[in-house]
From TrEMBL:
Ranges in coiled-coil conformation: none
GO annotation (BP), single: carotenoid metabolic process
Location of the Amine oxidase domain: 21-524
Organism of provenance: Guillardia theta (strain CCMP2712)
Gene3D superfamilies reported for this sequence: 3.90.660.50, FAD/NAD(P)-binding domain (3.50.50.60)
Higher taxonomy: Eukaryota, Cryptophyceae, Pyrenomonadales, Geminigeraceae, Guillardia
UniProt name for this protein: Amine oxidase domain-containing protein
GO MF annotation list: oxidoreductase activity
Listed Pfam families: Amino_oxidase (PF01593)
SUPFAM superfamilies in the cross-refs: FAD/NAD(P)-binding domain (SSF51905)
């Protein structure tokens, strides 16, 4: 028990542990299916890594609204194959979106603006290649790459994400699409391999501008370079960025608005979100996941199942060391030891963490990427920085005439520099200041007099990531390498009635991927008939 309150017990159909975009997608869909759902979230904001927050200036009444995580959105402002958009359409979650057409890139050879849309249009990516490509990274190799990935893009978009589920019922929900998918033959077979294999097939040489650019895109997607990122993810992204009419999106109100829209949709359909409610244990009864016990001592029983949206390294703490199943009318008991499973889950490889810089300052692009140097690799500590200035599109996030800036090292900050440090110590504060300097220098490429303009400043370290986002060691996510390992499916815990979602399971890291994992888990918890009915109702 905590806070001196007597523990209580309640019962619902499903409990979802964690309200990241995967958990919210699962919870909102299950509520749409008509089930009684409760989502338990340890933080005081929903959304996990995608939550938003407000900071008030200590010296004035000015309030600045920041994104904690994702800043680049695509395929959201209109119906698309983006899994999150399909979830929001299915549950009736409404968000206003602003559109824009590219971002600025500072790198060792200069500066260019990356414009989305066909690469051969005026100002398109082919102009960038002509200027910076050099030998072995020319228009010819780029065009060959586009030809190679064309069937891959079609294969990736053959199945509407809403048709996905993780049991044999998928044969029915995907049946009408399978002939088309299989018609792609060898192309379909390469989808789960590393994207670098396709780059080599196109004749792109390592060390060239084009190779490094594709390494950058891969790293931004997965936290791994092209030799570790699955072909499907990069092919889909390239297809989306370079299609005719392509635009990028930003949610009015910030990323938190997306989370709130999913929460509201879930609550309209009878679901419930419990904030500041960390889960202590996932209950297993008669061999099935049967609910949760919160750290406050409350028991929430689940008649039909539990979905976990916690990182794979945190899941073992929620599972008992052993549980029993009964068969033959309860005459036979079989004991299951989960210690081996727990050790396997803990061994999941991790990407590195982040340094974050949130600033409130007094006309710019909404996004920039800064790459400091090529030689040590895109994934070297502090080498690639992403800068987001969302007030360019949504002025409501800051007082009139001012901007919010979110800069971060993208999954390349070592946790071990901070491990074990006291967050209140002068040593920690000094290290944060030192490690944030690369962020300041990056933003100064865009706003040269930045330090004279700062009104509000927040510096986040891997320890901040670990504490507030519940990410073990502040990690970006699992580092499963394409061609060597596959992300596990939602049943990775191997406990009946317990499915997982989020970036720890297939299809992996990123906003579309975690939404896909959430909808897959939710669809797998309901009957094929219910799934097909909702699917047909959505017009997919």
């Amino acid at each position: 028990m905590s806070d001196g309150k007597a523990s209580t017990s309640s019962e619902v159909d499903f409990v979802v542990v964690g309200s990241g975009l995967g958990g919210l997608s699962a919870g909102a869909l299950l509520a749409k299916y008509g089930y009684d759902v409760t989502v338990c979230e340890s933080h005081y904001h929903p959304g996990g890594c995608a939550h938003g927050f407000e900071i008030k200036d200590k010296n004035s009444d000015d309030i600045f609204k920041f994104d904690a995580g994702p800043s680049l959105w695509a395929g959201m402002s209109e119906p698309s194959t983006n899994p999150l958009r399909q979830v929001m359409d299915a549950v009736g979650a409404q968000v206003e979106w602003k559109k824009y057409d590219g971002w600025g890139v500072y790198f060792p050879d200069g500066y260019f603006r990356f414009n989305v849309g066909p690469s051969d249009q005026a100002g398109g990516f082919e102009d960038v290649i002509r200027k910076f490509g050099g030998p072995g990274g020319s228009i010819q190799e780029w065009k060959k790459l586009q030809e190679i990935i064309k069937p891959l893009i079609l294969a990736c978009t053959t199945f509407p994400p809403m048709a996905l589920r993780a049991d044999l019922g998928v044969l029915k929900t995907l049946s009408k699409y399978l002939p088309t998918f299989l018609s792609f033959g060898p192309a379909a077979a390469t989808i789960n391999g590393p994207f670098s294999a396709v780059m080599k097939q196109a004749g792109i040489r390592e060390g060239t501008f084009l190779w490094r650019w594709l390494d950058y895109l891969s790293f931004a997607l997965s936290g791994l370079l092209a030799d570790g990122t699955i072909c499907a993810a990069v092919s889909y992204t390239l297809g989306d960025l370079h299609r005719k009419g392509s635009l990028l999106d930003y949610p009015v109100g910030g990323s938190g608005a997306v989370c709130e829209a999913l929460v509201q949709a879930m609550e309209r359909n009878g679901g419930k979100l419990l904030l500041k409610t960390p889960v202590q244990e996932i209950l297993i009864k008669d061999g099935r996941a049967a609910g949760v016990i919160t750290k406050g001592g409350d028991t929430i029983l689940a008649r039909k199942g539990v979905i976990s949206n916690v990182p794979v390294w945190s899941l073992p703490k929620l599972l008992p060391d052993e549980y029993s199943t009964f068969s033959f009318g309860g005459l036979w008991q079989e004991n299951h030891n989960t210690r081996g499973l727990k050790e396997d889950l803990k061994k999941t490889p991790q990407t590195e963490s982040f340094m974050h810089l949130h600033l409130g300052t007094p006309d710019l692009d909404i996004h920039y990427t800064v790459i400091n140097e090529w030689e040590s690799g895109i994934d070297a500590p502090g080498n690639m920085i992403v800068i987001s200035i969302p007030t360019v599109l949504d002025p409501s996030l800051a007082p009139p005439g001012k901007h919010v800036v979110h800069a971060y090292t993208a999954g390349n900050e070592p946790y071990d520099l901070f491990e074990g440090m006291d967050r209140n110590s002068d040593k920690y504060k000094q290290l944060k200041k030192e490690r944030a300097e690369v962020l300041y220098k990056a933003v100064e490429k865009v706003i040269p007099d930045l330090r004279d303009r700062i009104q509000v400043e927040l510096v986040g370290s891997p320890l901040t990531h670990e504490r507030y986002l519940r990410r073990p060691q502040g990690t970006y996510g699992p580092a499963w390498r394409a061609g060597k390992n596959l992300f596990p499916g939602p049943g990775l815990a191997k406990v009946p009635g317990l499915l997982c979602c989020g970036d720890s399971v297939f299809p992996g890291i990123g906003v579309p991927a975690v939404a896909a994992s959430g909808l897959t888990a939710a669809n797998s918890m309901v009957s094929v008939g219910e799934h097909v009915e909702l699917f047909l109702r959505g017009g997919w």
